[in-house]
């Protein structure tokens, strides 16, 4: 029970921190932590198959796509 | 009470994700931040559906080696009454993959937008457009 609440705190804090960043690269890295926290929460909520997919997509593939986009555009938010 | 609290606060977390995602879509200026907000709304909806299927004290709806007698040889009703609801899991699995591919299309469109307007700020794009 403590584990679930800790994971929810990680999700909420990383969401707020990611939207507060001016540097978009930092925001994308923190969004990766949010996806990983969601994967752990799905695992604790008895959805093991969803947790595997979310761990791959949310913590590796989506931040990778966003990093490619930021490298092709502008890094700092104006 | 303690297991119900997990379900309640999981719903609260999902609502927080949806509200923050709406804030990011409506009020943030940068295009990548808007796309992150859309992803947050999708994550919130997925978390609502997963929490619907969760039941406190249930078991994972996968027939493991330990549960083989209960699930296959024994009464199926007994296994189904102890397992959590696995229908939302199958649907959310589809939704996660569709959300990732939609995100890829949106990022590609924002790259084309930057090549044309040389900025990612929505205010700048509309200012140049109206001139």
In short:
The complex is a heterodimer of chains A (78) and B (131). Chain A has helices spanning 2-20, 24-44, 48-72.
What would you note in describing this structure?
Chain A has one domain (2-72). The radius of gyration of chain A is 14 Å and the shape is flat. Chain A is built from three helices and no strands. In chain A, helix 2 packs antiparallel against helix 3 (48-72). Chain A is mainly alpha-helical. Helices cover 83% and strands 0% of the residues of chain A. Chain B has 131 residues and is mainly α. Chain B has one domain (2-130): Helix Hairpins. Chain B has six helices and no strands. Chain B is elongated, with a radius of gyration of 21 Å. At the A-B interface, helix 1, helix 2 and helix 3 of A face helix 1, helix 2 and helix 5 of B.
Distance between the ends of chain B = 61 Å
Strand content of chain A: under 5%
Shape of chain B: elongated
Shape of chain A: flat
Mean pLDDT of chain A: 92
Order of helices and strands of chain A: HHH
Oligomer: heterodimer
Number of strands of chain A: 0
CATH architecture of chain B: Orthogonal Bundle
- Mean pLDDT score of chain B: 86
Keywords:
heterodimer, A: 78 residues, mainly alpha, flat, B: 131 residues, Helix Hairpins, elongated
Helix-strand blueprint:
The complex is a heterodimer of chains A (78) and B (131).
Chain A: H1 2-20, H2 24-44, H3 48-72
Helix pairs in contact in A: 1-2, 2-3
Chain B: H1 2-27, H2 31-53, H3 68-73, H4 76-82, H5 87-117, H6 122-130
